[in-house]
Amino acid sequence: MKTLMLPAQPADLMHLIRRGCGGLLLLLLLVAASGLAPARATAIDEVPPVGEPTTAQAQPRVEVLPRAASLDETAAQSRYSGQKLTLNFQNIDIRALLQVIADFSGFNVVTSDKVSGNVTLRLRDVPWDQALDILLQSKGLDQRREGNVLWVAPRQEIAARERQDSEARAAQEGLEPLRTRSFQLNYAKAADVAQQLGGAGAVGGSAGAAAAARILSPRGSAIAESRTNQLFVTDIHARMEAVRALIAKIDVPVRQVLIEARIVEASDTFSRSLGARLGGAGGRSPSGGAGAGAGFGGSYSATAAGAGGGSFVNLPSPGLGGQPAGVFAVSIFGESAARFLNLEISALEADGKGKVVSSPRVVTADKVKALIEQGTELPYQVSTSSGATSISFRKANLMLEVTPQITPEGNVILEVDVSKDSVGQDTQAGFAIDTKHVKTQVLVENGGTVVIGGIYTQEERETVTKIPFLGDLPGLGALFRAKETRSEKREMLVFITPKTLTDSLLSTR
């Protein structure tokens, strides 16, 4: 620690302050110029060299500390970036202390007439901007920064000034002439942009939220022309620039995703045999991932926490915690495994173990829902209040809703909603509808495949084999016919493969 002796005259002291003491001014003991007694020094006295007499009279001192960064900085100090200093003052005028901080930081300080009073403080090795905040908070003051000028005033005065400025700007906008400008939108809908400019899309559902989110001034307006997708905006010049900047941000091409879906009905043994073949001889780790003995690349992610090791893919999912297996299972394959799945599905149809019910493809934009629906509508009669009857229709179909979201890493988050309705028993009121519904959200790599399974259908079949005429004889006919009852359990598997389209086609206009 280095201690500098300061002169007692304030003019000489300020001259020393401006010199900066070699660039490291970290402690200042300022003596008031209006007849105040010198403040008693609180710094540790420097031991004089041997042979020199010691001085009993206390002198103002400036401590120059090393500016090495502390390793124990708190989270509160992380937002302060000023040079560190040490302050030790007793009953000093707050205006003089603000002048000291201004000279140290290089900022210009403008103080209000209502800033007055004295302060006693001791701050050691803190950033100067943090020291300024502590000083202002202790006196109920606040600051506003414009360029390299700091305006210091009481909080109430600053708040009143800001209200006056806001009212003045509003009054000026009310007198400024209006301008009208047209914007040609290429990708966004003009009607949607017009709602956003007017605050109609604000979150909160209240008039205050809509007014806060409104970009246009109270006098401004936006008209959407749907035929040419143009937007006509009428407002003052300052708001017109804000509208132009917003349109430049939102009127951009949106990335698109190709969604390939295959809906397969297979025997219940197909999914298990498929999992065994994909698993190879290596198995998988508890956290999911390719087994060591797998004969192809790719990755697998287990969606159920706590699923034990085993084969690489296991459809349906095993029971957890003593509970039976769930009604559906979700498995995720990498891009390499997806190619292997195509071969397995083709072999499935060739062996007669199942069939591909539907294989639709659809292209949708990022974060836009895609709907695939296939089935029939069943008519039924509905009685009206007048006693007449009318015909209504009830859907018994297979519906697949997929909403993709492209991540910054290039993967795709899929929100999948699958429902399969089929005709059930015939009742007096009409046909019953058997409903199966699966809804989930998964993260899949680009080109990977997510498989949703576990939707089962139980079929009971009774087959009678007999000899013509003899098998129909009463009593003896049982000797010439055979009855076989077969129970068949089938499973519906949904394979969904998202592929992001390249930006080359989207960037061309």
From TrEMBL:
<dbReference type="InterPro" id="IPR013355">
    <property type="entry name" value="Pilus_4_PilQ"/>
</dbReference>
<dbReference type="InterPro" id="IPR005644">
    <property type="entry name" value="NolW-like"/>
</dbReference>
<keyword id="KW-0813">Transport</keyword>
<dbReference type="InterPro" id="IPR004846">
    <property type="entry name" value="T2SS/T3SS_dom"/>
</dbReference>
<dbReference type="Pfam" id="PF07660">
    <property type="entry name" value="STN"/>
</dbReference>
<keyword id="KW-0732">Signal</keyword>
<dbReference type="GO" id="GO:0009306">
    <property type="term" value="P:protein secretion"/>
</dbReference>
<protein>
    <submittedName>
        <fullName>Type II and III secretion system protein</fullName>
    </submittedName>
</protein>
<dbReference type="GO" id="GO:0009279">
    <property type="term" value="C:cell outer membrane"/>
</dbReference>
<feature type="domain" description="Secretin/TonB short N-terminal">
    <location>
        <begin position="107"/>
        <end position="155"/>
    </location>
</feature>
<keyword id="KW-0472">Membrane</keyword>
<dbReference type="InterPro" id="IPR051808">
    <property type="entry name" value="Type_IV_pilus_biogenesis"/>
</dbReference>
<comment type="similarity">
    <text>Belongs to the bacterial secretin family.</text>
</comment>
<dbReference type="InterPro" id="IPR001775">
    <property type="entry name" value="GspD/PilQ"/>
</dbReference>
<dbReference type="Pfam" id="PF00263">
    <property type="entry name" value="Secretin"/>
</dbReference>
<dbReference type="Pfam" id="PF03958">
    <property type="entry name" value="Secretin_N"/>
</dbReference>
<dbReference type="InterPro" id="IPR011662">
    <property type="entry name" value="Secretin/TonB_short_N"/>
</dbReference>
<dbReference type="InterPro" id="IPR038591">
    <property type="entry name" value="NolW-like_sf"/>
</dbReference>
<keyword id="KW-0998">Cell outer membrane</keyword>
